[in-house]
Amino acid sequence: MAALLAGLLRVTDALARLGLVALLGVVAWTVLGRAVFGATGGAVDPILPGGIELASHALMVTILCALPRAAVGGLVRVEILAARLPRRLARGLERLWAAGFGLFAATVAVLLGGEARLQLARGDATQDLALPLGYVTGGAAVAAGLIALAALVHAARGGGARPGPAP
Questions:
Q1: pTM for this structure?
Q2: CA-to-CA distance for 139 and 149, rounded, in angstroms?
Q3: Listed ranges 58-62, 78-82, 85-89, 160-164; the one with the highest mean pLDDT
Q4: How far apart are CA 90 and CA 146, in angstroms?
Q5: How distant, in Å, are the alpha carbons of 2, 61, 124, 135, 165 from that of 131?
Q6: How many angstroms separate the CA atoms of 34 and 46, rounded?
Q7: What are the extents of the domains in the chain?
């Protein structure tokens, strides 16, 4: 189970980094493009069509792919309280929290998956780039499923044993 979790975290960490690089690249290109457009009086137009949409999708990928690491690293912790609890109780509460978060993420994954199927059946598309919206929502469903898996594996492992920071 530890190998499964470690492999999952390596993949989602890499995707989160890729999403962040894409987000920063789109934002930098948009700022540069607007500066060039303004400096040339509109003669040169390097502005990226759908830049806002691309940035929002990159942000979604970054957040959803970073959450599995957060799920096993502890999303919310009041250290002043947790440090005073008996170790067994603190681990039990952490396991309970991870299991609850995992079940919530699994529910979100199922709901997003259903919505993705509906969007694909209707032929819904994103506003600017006309990407099939069902694939965007489906990707979010898969990411929510990975978050659920990470949280549930962490709960099954007993909480407390946390992997180190992302390499």
A1: 0.80
A2: 15
A3: 58-62
A4: 25
A5: 37, 15, 8, 8, 34
A6: 8
A7: 2-157
